[in-house]
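Continued from yesterday's entry.
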Amino acid sequence: TPSSWSNNSYTIEVFNVSGQMVKSLGDFDLGGGSQEIKDLNLGMLPSGMYVAVLTNNTQKRKKTFKVVK
């Protein structure tokens, strides 16, 4: 998570290349700047390119990541 984000509640959404949301994890806590999301299980999705959007629910900030499975 970006270091400027404080410790808050987060949501992560994963989208396929067509823009359809294929996975969502809501309301989990991470510490800003030093945490990794290790339990984003994408095993049920086919191989390919995805976009993961991490949202800081308190500060209303978003960070986008490309994910290749």
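--- second protein ---
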Amino acid sequence: MKKHLENFLNYLSIERNSSENTITSYKNDIMQYLESSEIEYPEQMDKASIRKFLVEINSLAPTTRRRKLSAIRSFMRFLNNEDIIEKNHALDIDNAKTNKKLPKVMSIAETIDMLNSTTDEQDRAILETLYGVGCRVAELVIIKKSDIDFENQRVILFGKGNKERIVPINKSAIDAINRHLSTRGYESEYIFASRRNPESPMTTRNARRIVYKYSGGEVHPHMFRHAYATHLHSRGVDIRVIQELLGHADISTTTIYTSLANEQMSNAYNLAHPRG
């Protein structure tokens, strides 16, 4: 089984270009199942062993159980495609039910107020870019000057698994970046470079600190990504376009912004309607 698992992990790395964190997570979840169920041969991976494993981890959060079942399904799909097993029995097992909690999302007014509260050109550029592009903080800090088409307002982002996508960047973010570059006092290919070592990008930790500074720790960088997607969808941008902009592999990850946009519209209606 260890050889089959090793081949699967190599498949994730080479053919799927999965990140190291993803591969490690798959490995740990699958190893837990194999060891717990005393699986020595692929044909022992049946519905009974999977159900028994899920009972054993029943005390874990539903999202964790869903993740582990997803890892088992992916592994068995690989084995099935390689003709090592005849059927992926994990497909017959229902996912653990979860009570989906919507993430907190800033309103347009709250977002603009926070952008306008910045007192430093670099800080403003960071917040404007997070909101203007909807990028992850790990994507933000590695943006280079050569990644931005300033004239056509496009930026290349490198997401999970080093997957590349080109997205629009608005004029406010472009202007903030230009002001930052003209006043920072040092040269670097990175837009947001380490001040101690300009040849390296700023750390994600320092980028988070800058966001926390203007919110008293209540707003984290990913909330700008939530705001970006929710505000676009509430203004009519199709959810599949937002999926591409965010770099989501699965549309189900993006559909949460439909609920967030609907919730914001309902709140606005209830506050504004005379009979609310």
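The two ends are 61 Å apart (CA to CA). The mean pLDDT is 88. Will compare against the first tomorrow.
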